[in-house]
Specification:
Blueprint lengths: L7 E2 L2 H15 L6 E6 L3 H16 L3 E2 L8 E6 L4 H13 L1 H6 L4 E6 L5 H10 L5 E3 L7 H9 L20 E2 L10 E5 L1 E2 L10 H5 L3 E2 L2 H13 L4 E5 L19 H9 L6 E5 L8 H9 L6 E3 L7 H7 L5 H14 L4 E8 L6 H14 L3 E6 L17 H24 L5 E12 L2 E8 L4 E5 L7 E9 L4 E5 L1
Parallel strand pairs: 1-7, 2-3, 2-4, 4-5, 5-6, 8-11, 11-12, 13-14, 14-15, 18-20
Antiparallel strand pairs: 9-10, 16-17, 16-19, 17-18, 19-20
Length: about 475
């Protein structure tokens, strides 16, 4: 299996479907609306930008509320049971909308519908859902919409694909981004890691990388359009370009991000998500040598216990992880470090959990994204017999959060008195006062007094730190 497939453009049938739906929409007196609801990760957010883009190309205006839409698209997540149940609950609420407007089209997209049991559930228990589209097939949206507009049958179907199936990389899909100044830029799709708890390889398929020329062309267009902050996305972003034999014939991720950092313009590059087993010294050196690469590294730990990491199939040890952290801080002392932690993985002992707390004390992350382990049907960990009781999971989770809140506050206190580069996202009102709201180069949220507008880059002096936000004044 090669890392780079010959990219395909949108099929001619899809292009024709866009034109036909657009013709239907322009023939009515009132322009119909489309509403897109997104669950899950940044990759899902990026996929939703394509869903909105295709809807706009088909002649729909983009709505803020489902109640005003003639086309509802729910882009789902399967990473945790809670995300699926929340999506299903909201989908259930659309029943009355369909009853009131039978012409309403409802499509369920994304990772959840790459699972057979969920597709069958939607087909049988949600008869008002018109079609499903897994994440690798969203380019077929116009054809699905056109089929229903013509009175065709529902299309809630599941096709089982081989474990080593590599979906196409489809270029040329329209985009409708939320802002002009921040952007997601997908550089690869899928995952080959098969962590024992994770459903992603099963619902998004094998790794496949976009060609460097296509990535650079999209980055250049973003910068020319005024984008100030570009996040490179991939399920395992620093394995971009890797062939099945482990080689990198067109350069590795370090060379790619270095190439992009050489582009002209006032912007910052960031990336997620990195896997510790692929976090190379070359990547760290590239980050340190380019001002345009944001001083922020999101490096998922998941557990501080080598025993748990082995059962998770993470393929690194706590010592290896700490070595990466030490190298990052040696060359970039001001770097913001964030991570993911799973609490209550099957078989996790009190000693295992304490090892995770000890890593938090040692590394002192600026922020963590923490999750209580949720069994995912079809993954090896879901079959482990030593599942942790829910009350133990929650008790450990509360201890983890209490410790990290203290650390986050201490880390934020170190920013007091500094003048930071901040990209403004808009305004925030609290207790009758209105502030500018933005993010530092390290990704930290900051509220500040000033006159910056959305998309402006401001120099902001940090006057006060809180556990989850900085406060300051524009210089």
């Amino acid at each position: 299996m090669s890392a780079f497939q010959m990219p395909v453009c949108m099929p001619a049938s899809t292009v024709r479907a866009i034109a036909e739906v657009r013709s239907l929409n322009t023939a009515v007196d009132v322009q119909p609306a489309a509403f897109v609801l997104t669950f899950g990760c940044q990759q899902n957010e990026a996929d939703s930008e394509h869903l909105r883009g295709m809807a706009a190309e088909m002649g729909y205006r983009i709505a803020n509320y489902a109640e005003e839409a003639e086309l509802i698209l729910v882009n789902t997540c399967a990473i945790r049971e809670h995300a699926e149940k929340k999506a299903l609950s909201i989908i259930g609420q659309y029943k009355h909308l369909k009853a009131a407007r039978p012409s309403l089209i409802i499509g369920i997209c994304g990772c959840m519908v790459a699972q057979q049991h969920r597709v069958e559930e939607l087909k049988n228990r949600y008869p008002y859902v018109d079609f499903t589209l897994d994440a690798a097939s969203i380019h077929r949206l116009p054809e699905m919409v056109l089929e229903r507009r013509r009175g065709g049958r529902r299309a809630c179907t599941y096709v089982e694909l081989p474990r080593d199936h590599v979906p196409d990389v489809v270029e040329g899909m329209p985009l409708r981004r939320e802002t002009r100044w921040r952007a997601w830029l997908s550089i690869m799709y899928g995952c080959n890691n098969f962590c024992s708890y994770c459903i992603v390889p099963y619902v998004r398929g094998r790794e496949r990388s976009r060609a460097p020329a296509d990535i650079e062309a999209e980055a250049r267009a973003l910068i020319a359009d005024g984008c100030r902050d570009i996040t490179l996305l991939g399920q395992n972003v620093n394995s971009w370009g890797r062939m099945a034999d482990g080689s990198f014939p067109e350069g590795d991720f370090a060379s790619l991000i270095g190439r992009l950092a050489e582009l002209d313009g006032d912007f910052r590059l960031r990336f997620m998500t990195s896997h510790p087993k692929d976090a190379s010294d070359a990547l760290i050196e590239t980050m340190a040598s380019h001002e345009k690469i944001a001083r922020h590294f999101h490096l998922p730990l998941q557990s501080g216990s080598d025993t748990v990491l082995a059962r998770m199939n993470r393929r690194y040890t706590a010592e290896r992880y700490l070595g990466i952290v030490d190298r990052l801080r040696a060359v970039m002392p001001d770097i913001t470090l964030t991570t993911d932690i799973i609490v209550g993985f099957p078989g996790e002992s009190e000693a295992d959990f304490e090892a995770t707390l000890e890593i938090l004390r040692r590394v002192r992350f600026d922020m963590i994204y923490s999750f209580i382990y949720s069994p995912r049907k079809g993954t090896p960990a879901a079959e482990y017999t030593d599942q942790i009781p829910e009350e133990v999971k929650h008790e450990r989770f509360d201890r983890l959060i209490a410790l990290q809140n203290e650390i986050s506050y201490e880390r934020n206190k170190l920013e007091e008195g500094k003048v930071l580069r901040v990209l403004c996202d808009g305004e925030k009102t609290q207790e009758g006062k209105t502030f500018c709201s933005g993010r530092t180069d390290g990704g930290k949220l900051i509220y500040f007094a000033g006159a910056a507008r959305p998309g402006d880059v401001a120099q902001v002096k940090v006057e006060r730190a809180e556990p989850f936000v900085l406060r300051g004044v524009q210089m």
